[in-house]
């Protein structure tokens, strides 16, 4: 090699080495992305890998094998807006004021502008924030107050000043249009919503793909880490609004095979089971598309993916449909978290409550200093690295009301305990899920010693959450 060529190659190597060193330094400091996917009314039993409901969820099954499944996760107030309020603020419903769903029947219930939210914290940490789908934290303004929630207006335009630092907005407040959804996109004005002739989870998955791919930096600042929230509406009612391709998966299934819970009313469950499971299959399909896009982007290893839901679905169990109650079908939610090489796949029984989600995820991302001081939840991020820490013995259940009506409860590894108020009188419920997994035998008055222990646990929660009606449940 000639001297000149040698010097050239050496100089190139030095430059290349310096560049590589700089790249390594940059990579070492790189913050993880966050992909938070939370469909509405997706009960934990609908995860195919649990072996409970006869659902078809190949993408979630595959994802679970690479993830940590927190099987004791719950929705403390199993209803859309209260869950979202807890998730975004890290505070309990009586602190946020979001104790029930946001709509024009109760115009004072909405996410306050002065709350520092999960998205605000991420923005403060230098993230680009995207939000897709159902928001349901605002209330229609300038409309008559409805007498009842069934007659209320639910959907509304959410102006940028009430979006809490979200940079890319492709969302709506609350409208159950699964097959012809509409969205306000980015800076669109109040009268500029856009309709799409698609199944909403698939449409939102395609938008998520575009956001993650970010060709030419058109969707986001590529120099920033991203946090994308995808809030799919299905499998929320109306269940029948689902593409035929997913309905066909369950068309020939008998109700006997579909409804395998002995606490379920077959007639009530039979009206919705096939369509609900079809919706679940559609959500799984959409989830798979997002995961494929993430892998193709090269960001898989540097992205924390969370799959969860705002609450479950009773689907005929205990002669009920919907949510809002302490039974497993309503109270428990999926919580599956993946971060390759950082989180060991498996199962964990942490009793994580919704207000804990923001502090825990910020802690996991190395962003604890951005957790709002007002947050009431705890940071359990060390659980994800396998460290031994103090854990809660129970999770807390809330069904708001007043001194006459309402319910509070706790759920431990084995027992579910509830104090219900009816006309100011207390009714107790205690279920031993080890011997009675479907919660069909109330043993509160036979196992008074256990009920007493659970009551003490409940008392701690009432005090720690500053419950304004604590004395009525003591």
Automatic annotation (TrEMBL):
Q: Answer whether the UniProt record assigns the keyword Hydrolase to this protein.
A: yes
Q: Pfam families of this UniProt entry?
A: Sulfatase
Ordered alphabetically, the record's keywords are: Hydrolase
Answer yes or no on keyword Transport.
no
The record's InterPro entries line, in alphabetical order, gives:
Alkaline_phosphatase_core_sf, Sulfatase, Sulfatase_N
E.C. numbers: 3.1.6.1
Q: Which GO terms describe its molecular function?
A: arylsulfatase activity
Which PANTHER family has this protein been placed in?
A: ARYLSULFATASE FAMILY MEMBER, ENDO-4-O-SULFATASE
This chain belongs to which protein, by name? Arylsulfatase
What organism is this sequence from? Answer: Sedimentisphaera cyanobacteriorum
Taxonomic lineage of the native organism:
Bacteria, Pseudomonadati, Planctomycetota, Phycisphaerae, Sedimentisphaerales
